[in-house]
Amino acid sequence: MRKIIIILLCIGVIFAQNNYPIVLIHGFMGWGEDEMGGYNYWGGREDYSQMLRDQGHTVFTVSVGPVSSNWDRAIEVYTQLKGGQVDYGLAHAEKFNIIQKPELKSFEALYPEWDGNHPVHLVGHSMGGQTARMLQYLLTQEIGDSKKTDKLEKSELLGQSQLNWIRSITSISTPHNGTTLADVVSKTIPFVQYFVGLAGVVGTQIYDFDLEQWSFSRGKDETWAGYVKRMRTHEAWATKNISSWDLSIVGAQELNSYLLADPDVYYFSISTSTTEKNENSPNHYPIEGTSLLTRSRSKIIGSRVGYWADGVATDSTWFENDGVVNTISMAGPTTGTNGADPIVSYDENEFLISGQWYTLGPIQIDHWNIIGHLGDDITHKIAKNVLTNQAIRLKELPPF
Q1: What are the b/e assignments for 287-322, b being 16+ CB within 10 Å?
Q2: pLDDT tens-digit profile of 52-94?
Q3: What DSSP string describes 10-76?
Q4: Do the Cβ atoms of 154 and 145 come closer than 8 Å?
């Protein structure tokens, strides 16, 4: 009888499915569904979020600060799903001299039912993968409101522990261990070039850097060029509460020291690459078909050295990249003071367990092709298949 019960339990796990919603989190310089006219972050000229809905999935897309820190972005994801006033936390606001509760950052709930009985799957592209991990951390911690007191934050997110709200986290082309392009991104204009070229087609009046917490907003008659210039010279860039720090090798290393894999969450990472090794050197160069907007940066990363907090340099294993992120950085967090998260290659024939990363790839496609930008019919088909197949995997995970 005992053997029969065990067999029945195993069969139940194998065939268990869930109907938890998928939440799509955009990356650095990204935007929400209604912020770029008919051009989608997830899909470009197509709408991948609607594609997933048509396939039977419940999907929400969020719009968070495109250059904000993962802390700020994670809180914005939470507030957009649950609804209400953004609260970055008293201690965080005091530390970085930002507005704790920006007046204009108040949202109608996308998924007010979200709680431990109604969890979600988080899917993040690029920096969005880091943001998903930060949100999981903030949900499960009780954050104090100041170093001078033992009082907890008053927000529902920061002031209490909320378990089982996230069933899985999927990262796509995410710099879990940082990218050697990060300092180029913050100090020069390549990170703006891609977007400006895109915005010039669909208009720039509807895009916002969402930095109201820094008292930064676009003037009524301000030109796009002026707006970008002010943003690039803003004081926020000199702090750790900004994307450039979190995307750097040292910043990601700091995040990895406390954004640890949760034993109750399933983790997936999808890696991408658009380079190959040169026969006569360890350097990597863009493969044929790499877009012009990606080609120059992929070549830079293909020979670029970065440094961790102790001054140790990266080696040639960091040269392979997708034009924005080093491929070796995408599999999962490995550089924290507590050591690497468990990371294994995904095998569709193996039974999945929570608390470790299942990595897929690298897929021969660049950082933007994987979400439907810049490519051709072939890359678009690959991108759609990747997202479709991952959504199926998520649905097949056992429910809490």
Answers
A1: eeebbebbbebbbebbbbebeeeeeeebeeebbbbb
A2: 999 999 999 999 999 899 999 999 999 999 999 999 999 999 9
A3: HHHHHH----PPEEEE--TT---TTSSTT-BTTTBTS-HHHHHHHTT--EEE----SSS-HHHHHHH
A4: yes
**Residue linked to tokens 């950052």:** 105
Distance CA 194, CA 200 (A): 10
pLDDT single digits (tens) 336-353: 999 999 999 999 999 999
Closest to 249 (Cα-Cα) out of 188, 322, 304: 304
Domains of the chain: 12-395 (3.40.50.1820)
Which has the closest alpha carbon to 342: 326, 327, 328, 353? 353
Active site annotation includes 315: no
- Other CB atoms within a 10 A radius of the CB of residue 342 amount to 13
Element (H, E) at 233: none
Catalytic annotation on 322? yes
Give yes or no for a contact between 177 and 333, defined as CB atoms under 8 angstroms apart: yes
Annotated catalytic residue within 121, 367, 373, 380: 367
Amino acid residing at 105:
K
Query: At residue 24, what are phi and psi to the nearest 5 degrees?
Result: -95, 125
Q: How confident is the model at residue 190 (pLDDT cuts 50, 70, 90)?
A: very low
C-alpha distance from residue 79 to each of 49, 101, 240, 283, 286 (Å): 20, 11, 22, 43, 40
Provide the residue type at 270 as one letter: I
Active site residue 126: yes
Residues 233, 243: Cα–Cα separation, whole Å: 14
Does the pTM surpass 0.85? The reply is: yes
Catalytic residue among 322, 341, 366, 373: 322
Return d(Cα 99, Cα 72) in angstroms, integer.
Answer: 11
